[in-house]
Amino acid sequence: MTIGATGWWDQEKIFSFTNPKPVGINGEVNESLYPITYRFSFPDGELKEFYVELERPELRLHRTASPLDLPVWTELSHQRCPNCSLCEKTYSHCPVAVNLVGVVEAFNDVFSYEESDVEVITQARIFSSRVKNTHAVGSLIGIYMVTSGCPVMDKLRPMVLTHLPFATTEESVYRSISMYLMAQYFRYKKGLVPDWDLTQFTAFYDDVSTVNQAFVKRLTTYVERDASLNAVVLLNCFATATRRVIEQERFEEVQKMFGAYFDGPAGPCSGEA
Q1: Which domain holds residue 155?
Q2: In angstroms, rounded to a whole number, what is the distance separating the alpha carbons of residues 96 and 141?
Q3: Is 202 exposed, middle or buried (0-12, 13-18, 19+ CB in 10 A)?
Q4: N or C end of the chain: which has fewer CB within 10 A?
Q5: What is the mean pLDDT of residues 3-14?
Q6: Higher local confidence (pLDDT), 175 or 223
Q7: How far apart are CA 5 and CA 241, in angstroms?
Q8: Is 263 domain-assigned?
Q9: Any bridge partners for residue 171, and if so which?
């Protein structure tokens, strides 16, 4: 079973170490696309594959025609996020929910605590691990949530460039803060006020958590088993952990790695004047 933006695909065409060009599902080279593929191998032999195409340079999800009969849980007004700024006259459905229909339906009969062998194929490398479904599905759902046009989650989209499946909490926190500080550098270069002290960072992640929690409620009205549901819960745990690191200034261990930036220039070698 393969679910993708445009249909069936051939793995040998999508990735090779000798020709890592972005090749679409139809086999044509498309330099404007950044593809990511998820392959799930379940213990019973079932295989599920998901092909995601992102448009360079912004890394927005490459849009295709939406299903004609979208489920009720995708409607914008259904369990709408309290901080959603989208206009219902323009958006009848939540863009994230619309793009996640295929993924949610594919895992509607899967439990989060079960394990699968998962491969994630990007242009640069292949990630492979046996993990609980909630971790792998969470990584996949995370891509859709930050590339679908949600005004809140869009600010996390730059992290897709260095997409790290099955990330630990420490890795997620490090990448999130690094991305945020790079965003402040770009704001500074554009003449905008940067947030070097991370004073707005916790408020930013409060918004992210609000979206995650509302999306869990949205999914609760539909899913039969909990793989997709707990995947979003896990994403929210990462968001909460990131927020707490900043709020409580728990940087002691990480700061030790940056000692070379604090030391003064080395003195002369022994015996030199």
Answers
A1: 2-255
A2: 9
A3: middle
A4: C
A5: 37
A6: 175
A7: 32
A8: no
A9: none
Is position 272 within any domain? no
Residue 122 burial (CB count, 10 A): 19
Residue position matching structure tokens 């930036």: 261
Q: Has residue 12 been placed in a domain?
A: yes
Compute CA distances 176 → 155, 201, 202, 233, 259, whole Å: 10, 10, 12, 18, 21
How many angstroms separate the CA atoms of 149 and 87, rounded? 13
Give the span between the Cα atoms of 143 and 164, in whole angstroms. 10
Q: What is the pLDDT of residue 266?
A: 64
Residue 195 contacts residue 183 (beta carbons within 8 Å) = no
Task: Give me 131's structure tokens.
Answer: 């993990």
User: Per the structure, how many domains does the chain have?
Assistant: 1
Q: With bands split at pLDDT 50, 70 and 90, how would you rate the model's confidence at 166? A: confident
What is the model's pLDDT at position 187? 97
